[in-house]
Design a protein that fits this description.
Order of helices and strands: HEHEHEHHEEHEHEHEHEEHHH
Helix content: 25-40%
Number of helices: 12
Strand order of the largest sheet: 7-6-8-5-9
Distance between the termini: 44 Å
Structural class: alpha/beta
Radius of gyration: 19 Å
Strand content: 15-25%
Number of strands: 10
Shape: globular
Amino acid sequence: MNRRTLLGGLFAAASVPALSACSSGITSLDSEGTTTSGGGSSKGGLTIGTANFTENQVLGYLYAAVLDAAGVKTTVRPNLGTREILIPALKGGDIDLLPEYQGALLHYVDPKSTATEEGEMQNALAMALPAGLQVLPYGMAEDSDAFAVTRETAEKYGLASLADLKKQNGKLVIGAAAEVKTRQVGAVGLKDVYGVEFKEFKSLDSSGPLVKGALKKGDIDVANLFTTDTDIQANDWVVLTDPKNLIPGQHVVPLIADRKADSTVRKALAGLGNVLTTADLTELNRQVDKDKKDPEDVARTYAEHKGLTATG
């Protein structure tokens, strides 16, 4: 599905005047330590969009669970696509909120940024985001990109780090979602930072069944996965280390339109961020991917178990 088709299918939202971007730095999980550009209100409800992979859908439903409990009416539109689709949809009013990842989002809005520490990245995001958008406090949970090979491939070519890939220039095939071919945290950065050139780039999916199946079958040598993917350990795959810090930190962070960023939304999402850990997120992914549970059911059960939906 192309971008035009997907956006055309999103619900038609009322036009909202653009507000100035939040200029305050958010460097902790404290929901009180932030400011807003004013005028935001969630009284009319909000729409949460998610990217096209399991974890982001789970996060979207977690956002909905805690917001619903706080009295904010929500609609979740899952599996809308990549950042290249979601950000314009957020700016245009088709969606109001989406789960994001610090480093990846920063590279998208400011490819030249060199910030790597969580607080630095949060401040950089506050300055670089388009007018009308802001990030709320980041949570404890994080999920980074990873480049993995099978144990057999690692031993065959002597691969332990991303730097080792250069020794096999022109010989190895990488598999990833299509957009990784042109991203800094992807083929572009691997060439710029490590001097790595691949024999072929195969467009597959984001840490999903296509790329993992191709790695198992030997159709690709290197796979772009996510660190919270339980298949990495289950298959004894080797995640290549990143000695030059190409891959930035990736704490989960809510990206929201100013028009909806009121204190009710801030408090609810900060509460979730203070509770959800990386281990929790990995387990929720496993329940959806391995146990074949519904992501909304998984998210709401977790929120209830952690007391995040209590209203009394």
